[in-house]
């Protein structure tokens, strides 16, 4: 196996063709008992063998198991960083034709390079006097196309070890790189144009989704419009996609994160504030009361309720079912917490199957403030006579008919 591998930009990555052997030496402050240490040693041996057979995912799994048992080991971190870089490098060199006809699942090359950089930085914090930590960090930065930073790391490593052949070869590869590319990657500040704005919310794209007709929107914006119509908001093409089948565009998302990190962080913070209202809030569906252990289908047509159900399915699949009290023209004092067990999107409406939890939680409703009165056992109801309303029956069944009279 050659010690040199070329990236897509023509730069040669040095020093990641092989990994370090794990020496059987359990001494010092970070020593482990012999039984755990033998397991760490076995995982490292399996990981190194898988790495040398080009089974990099298997190698990463073994290195991660070893790191869980002995965190902060320099050899483990360095070997795992090299394995991350080899997979990232393979994906970067893969031709578009191969990607089209044989798509791969898993992390993308930018994420893998970021994980490699994280391990390399931890290794450098542990061994800042070792040339290998500088080599690994420089290679990770090259894969992330941060060429100026990679050059600075290489120069710092050469100050530590001026005779390192790998560092000198890496520096020569960077110096052979066209100056225009170095300047573009390192110094040019890209202008934020409306090409990266969502045409629905008119804000910076967050979790972009590209439709089959070629238009890109924020994921939440697209599916919110599809609650009203299953057509593309721009060209009106009928879309046969759903939240479970439509993934975020990895390429576009990486471009945005890498070139506009500040705008992306601000947009992410705004999105998190909108969806995280608090842990004590539960959505309420005002329709009818639910008998414990009852299961029934619920057909939803209105866009606002379709949006509500979609957000519930993105969370814990639970909501509160409550009846409207005609006497006060407001929601009743008690509700039943139900769980959506299945959701089917059919045409212009959604159909969901609801089932009450076996551990029913009744909640006193005062606005959205609740107190918990949990019933641990569910009794089987063989027969019952309904009262004036289903709510009256449920409250009487729970033995709190005095509340109804009040």
TrEMBL record:
PROSITE patterns: TPR (PS50005), ZF_RING_1 (PS00518), ZF_RING_2 (PS50089). InterPro entries: Lon_prtase_N_sf, PUA-like_sf, TPR-like_helical_dom_sf, TPR_rpt, Znf_RING, Znf_RING/FYVE/PHD, Znf_RING_CS. The keyword Metal-binding applies. It holds the Pfam family zf-C3HC4_2. Signal peptide: none annotated. This is Uncharacterized protein LOC111283843 isoform X4. One of its GO terms (molecular function) is ubiquitin protein ligase activity. Residues 198-236 form the RING-type domain. SUPFAM superfamilies: PUA domain-like (SSF88697), RING/U-box (SSF57850), TPR-like (SSF48452). The keyword Cell wall biogenesis/degradation does not apply. Keywords: Metal-binding, TPR repeat, Zinc, Zinc-finger. PANTHER family: LON PEPTIDASE N-TERMINAL DOMAIN AND RING FINGER PROTEIN C14F5.10C (PTHR23327:SF42), RING FINGER PROTEIN 127 (PTHR23327).
């Amino acid at each position: 196996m050659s010690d040199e591998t070329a990236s897509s930009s023509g730069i040669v990555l040095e020093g990641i063709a092989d990994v370090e052997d794990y020496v059987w030496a359990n001494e010092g402050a970070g020593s482990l008992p012999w039984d755990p240490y033998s397991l760490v040693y076995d995982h490292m041996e399996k990981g190194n063998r898988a790495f040398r057979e080009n089974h990099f995912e298997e190698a990463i799994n073994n290195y991660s198991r070893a790191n869980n048992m002995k965190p902060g080991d320099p050899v483990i971190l360095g070997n795992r960083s090299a394995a991350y870089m080899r997979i990232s490098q393979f994906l970067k060199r893969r031709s578009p034709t191969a990607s089209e006809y044989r798509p791969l699942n898993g992390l993308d090359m930018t994420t893998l390079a970021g994980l490699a950089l994280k391990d390399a930085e931890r290794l450098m914090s542990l061994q800042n006097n070792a040339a290998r930590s500088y080599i690994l960090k420089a290679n990770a930065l090259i894969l992330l196309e941060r060429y100026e930073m990679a050059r600075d790391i290489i120069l710092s490593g050469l100050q530590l070890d001026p005779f390192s052949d790998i560092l000198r070869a890496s520096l020569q590869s960077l110096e052979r790189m066209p100056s225009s590319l170095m300047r573009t990657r390192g110094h040019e500040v890209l202008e934020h144009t409306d090409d990266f704005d969502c045409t629905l919310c008119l804000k910076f794209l967050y979790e972009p989704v590209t439709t089959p007709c070629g238009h890109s929107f924020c994921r939440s914006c697209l599916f919110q419009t599809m609650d009203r119509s299953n057509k593309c908001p721009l060209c009106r093409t009928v879309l046969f996609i759903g939240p479970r089948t439509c993934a975020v565009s990895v390429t576009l998302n990486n471009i945005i994160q890498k070139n506009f990190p500040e705008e992306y962080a601000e947009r992410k913070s705004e999105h998190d504030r909108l969806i995280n209202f608090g842990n004590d809030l539960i959505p309420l569906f005002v329709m009818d009361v639910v008998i414990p252990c009852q299961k029934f289908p619920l057909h939803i047509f209105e866009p606002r309720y379709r949006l509500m159900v979609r957000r519930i399915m993105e969370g814990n699949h639970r909501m509160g079912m409550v009846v409207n009290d005609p006497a006060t023209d407001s929601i009743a004092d008690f509700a039943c917490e139900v769980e959506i067990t299945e959701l089917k999107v059919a045409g212009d409406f959604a159909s969901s199957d609801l089932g009450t939890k076996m551990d029913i939680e009744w909640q006193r409703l005062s606005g959205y403030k609740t107190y918990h009165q949990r019933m641990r056992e569910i009794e089987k109801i063989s027969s019952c006579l309904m009262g004036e309303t289903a709510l009256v029956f449920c409250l009487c069944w729970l033995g709190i008919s005095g509340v109804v009279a009040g």
